[in-house]
Amino acid sequence: MTAKHIIDMSGKVVVITGGSRGLGREMALGFAEAGADLVIASRKLENCEAVADEIRALGRKALPLGVHVADWEDCDRLADAAYDEFGKVDVLINNAGMSPIYDRPVGITETLYDKVLDLNLKGPFRLMANIGERMIADGGGAIVNISSVAAIRPKKNIITYAAAKAGLNAMTEAMADALGPTVRVNCIMPGPFLTDISKAWDMEAFEARARSSIALQRGGKPDEIVGAALYLASEHAGYTTGAIIRIDGGSH
């Protein structure tokens, strides 16, 4: 392994939404270990502060922000705060998301529908538009959207979530076209990962289902997404934009 093949994010500033837990926290710590400074955003400021402390313990700078990504003005506030603190953003990771439980489609209220679409789709759009333009002015950058295998494997219990993530896939390709040639926009489609959310799952039922519907016959470990995010954010992916990478254990 030569130095040029090692991903070094030293001097880079990374903004990550939904960065206080689950895959977001795992990616945030991974980028910090690679040398980046982080802006950690999620709705609960105290959770962001806890992750920021972990990042500072690694010798990196961190800015925790309580932000509701579903809110257009909050997205702009996040962008302004990041640039005020660090003067630039090299990498934006749109990770915040939600998939609420409901019984039948008719039980999805307009409020719930709007919440899902706003958080999973509207927020990422606004952040890509706002920060993407600033990246262009600064000479370039990288955006990584975190979608879901639900975008291509929609089921009855994730209708609005699947639609929003399918929209995020399409938006990834469109934004790659809009923000090129200096800003790259790519997407990761995770399958089921064993994050804190999985604690609410019926694990016996999940494991039985995994044996027949996932080639690797298990859920993902949170750190198994980090390498792909680092790659897409780094110069190693210099000729990669508009790409959508499945990390789902071979879900089918």
UniProtKB/TrEMBL annotation:
<dbReference type="InterPro" id="IPR002347">
    <property type="entry name" value="SDR_fam"/>
</dbReference>
<dbReference type="InterPro" id="IPR020904">
    <property type="entry name" value="Sc_DH/Rdtase_CS"/>
</dbReference>
<dbReference type="InterPro" id="IPR036291">
    <property type="entry name" value="NAD(P)-bd_dom_sf"/>
</dbReference>
<protein>
    <submittedName>
        <fullName>Short-chain dehydrogenase</fullName>
    </submittedName>
</protein>
<dbReference type="Pfam" id="PF13561">
    <property type="entry name" value="adh_short_C2"/>
</dbReference>
<comment type="similarity">
    <text>Belongs to the short-chain dehydrogenases/reductases (SDR) family.</text>
</comment>
